[in-house]
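Fill-in record for Transcription regulator PadR N-terminal domain-containing protein.
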Amino acid sequence: MLILDLLTSEPRHGYDLIREIESRTGGAYVPSPGVIYPALEALLDLGLVKVELDGQRRMFQLTKAGQTEHEANTETLQAIAERLAALQESERPEDPEDVRGAMYRLRHTVRDTVRSDPDNAANRKAIADILADAQQRIGKLTAS
């Protein structure tokens, strides 16, 4: 329903949907492409959205059936909007901005390093060891 709601104002591509959801949750939730794209495919299969190409990117927009479905679920959409607003207004967000930024940079560094030399088993093992060490060290913080 949230995706349908985001598509009511304008066609969007998957990455734009991810960023908009992140923005609407105050950064507390950032859906992965593995969540967004299967959801979009399901909406396509149901006939609720259609795709137009914008260069190499697929832009998703509501169909008439999607607009009807959106209009039929105003109560659900209101509940979603209230929950998203609560996440943004929280005095204690799920992931404070400094931690969220560090996690984002770490994820991208790990991904880029592995992708730059995917056959390098020594690098992959070193990365796994570093991550395991970080996990243990961070886990000890909650015990203190």
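KEY FINDING: The first strand starts at residue 49 and ends at 54.
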